[in-house]
Amino acid sequence: MLDKECLSCPLIMFLPQPDIDTDEKGRKVYILPMRYANRFALILLIPVALFLGLPFYLVYGENILLVFRSGSFLLLFVVVTVGIVIHELLHGLVWSFFTREGFRAIRFGVKWDLLAPYCHCRQGLKVWQYVAGSAAPLIILGFVPVLWAFLTGNALVMFYGCFFIIGAAGDILSIWMLRGFRHNQVILDHPEELGYIVEDPESED
To answer: Across the strands, what pairs with 120?
Structure first.
């Protein structure tokens, strides 16, 4: 089980740490207010720019200038808007594979005060299943397009991939919060905040 000592490790103090509480059923609850995902997205801008954006610019700088000159950002805006929907669908699709009710166990919505769409799974998942669903958009919409952009020099695809790596800030935090948990431990996605409820603290690997 993840404990306070692990969560407060000095090496990770730059990341927001979850509040750990107990609900009325005696289950441990790990949550971060969803606003922290937006703040963490701003932090992610720095490594994404340094380790992805800068190398791409050094190799394909002229391609980036062509994007600005051609006015292709309107196309990028449309594709990104569709991608935001796909991002949440990917969460739901992967998680639905592991639930008894399938896609009926998945709920979608928007936190309008934060302009943050979300996907919520109403049934318990093993940690590895939860991580698989959380990481799917980051990999498929983020890392894969960035790799393709480096191979082809396509600046639009590069912008797209970087956007969805940064847009997966909440997913990265969710996965980070699960470090130290057993991979077969059962957790329940929190219905309101970024986090989860420990359903089965005694489950074994």
So the answer is: 107
CA atoms within 13 A on the CB side of 188: 16
Cα separation, 141 vs 3, in Å, equals: 32
Instruction: Read off φ and ψ for residue 118, nearest 5 degrees.
Output: -145, 160
In order of 18, 28, 83, 148, 194, the CA distances from 24 in angstroms are 19, 10, 38, 48, 19
How many Cβ atoms are within 10 Å of 75's Cβ, its own excluded? Answer: 12
Distance between CA atoms of residues 68 and 53, nearest Å: 15
Contact (Cβ atoms closer than 8 angstroms) between residue 172 and residue 116: no
| pTM of the predicted model over 0.85 | yes
Between CA 99 and CA 143 the distance in angstroms is: 27
- Tokens 């998942």 appear where? 125
pLDDT in tens, 125-161: 999 999 999 999 999 999 999 999 999 999 999 999 9
Express as a percent the part of the chain with pLDDT over 90: 63
Per-residue pLDDT at 112 exceeds 50: yes
DSSP 200: E
